[in-house]
């Protein structure tokens, strides 16, 4: 069981790294778009200048949305106590099934940790809603696949 707890910690740390990279990338893109917008000199064709500024503003807003989403994901991750062991599938649990391994936390998708594939899913996802509150040995079906929960940490 300790091996699975250590694995859960590695998955959690990998997710934090992914989210931190998203945050840094979004912040850098916002700064870059601001600089482009602010350094754009007014040309003799006023409409071209205004169109360029509007495009940069839209780009900044899109990156701000991405930043907001990444910060929200990080906040959700920081709420998880990875040392906690679970008897039922819930947020923060690592669920091992015959169809794959799922860390219930944020919806990042497929990640590779120690040359093993895990899926980071949220409870709001269709699969997350099916897995929620299930115990070891529970069976369910999703997208024509039959799942059996082998272990929960």
Describe the protein's architecture and organization:
- The model has no long low-confidence stretch (mean pLDDT about 90).
- Strands 3-4-2-1-6-5 form a six-stranded mixed beta sheet.
- It has two domains: about 1-80; about 95-150, no CATH class.
- The N and C termini lie close together (about 10 Å).
- By secondary structure, it is α+β, with helices and mostly antiparallel strands.
- Strand 1 (about 95) and strand 2 (about 100-105) form a beta hairpin.
- It has helices at about 1-40, 45-80, 125-130; strands at about 95, 100-105, 110-115, 115-120, 140, 145-150.
- Helix 1 (about 1-40) runs antiparallel to helix 2.
Quick tags:
153 residues; alpha+beta; 2 domains; six-stranded mixed sheet; 3 helices
The share of residues in helices is 40-55%
Q: Kindly report the average pLDDT value.
A: 90
Strand order of the largest sheet: 3-4-2-1-6-5
Specify the number of helices.
3
Provide the domain count: 2
- Report strand %: 15-25%
Main sheet properties: 6 strands, mixed
Cα-atom radius of gyration: 21 Å
User: Structural class, from secondary structure content?
Assistant: alpha+beta
**Distance between the terminal alpha carbons, to the nearest Å?**
8 Å
Name the poorly predicted regions.
Answer: none
Shape: elongated
N to C succession of SSEs? HHEEEEHEE
């Amino acid at each position: 069981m300790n091996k699975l707890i250590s694995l859960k910690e590695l998955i959690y740390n990998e997710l934090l790294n992914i989210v931190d990279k998203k945050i840094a990338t979004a912040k850098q893109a916002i700064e870059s778009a601001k600089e482009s917008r602010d350094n754009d000199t007014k040309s003799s064709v006023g409409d071209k200048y205004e169109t360029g500024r509007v495009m940069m503003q839209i780009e900044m807003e899109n990156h701000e949305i991405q930043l907001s989403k990444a910060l929200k994901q990080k906040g959700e991750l920081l709420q998880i106590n990875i040392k906690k062991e679970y008897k039922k599938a819930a947020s923060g649990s690592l669920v091992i099934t015959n169809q794959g391994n799922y860390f219930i936390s944020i919806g990042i998708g497929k990640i590779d940790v120690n040359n093993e594939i895990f899926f980071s899913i949220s409870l709001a996802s269709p699969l997350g809603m099916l897995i929620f509150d299930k115990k070891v040995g529970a069976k369910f079906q999703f997208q024509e696949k039959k799942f059996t929960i082998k272990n929960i940490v």
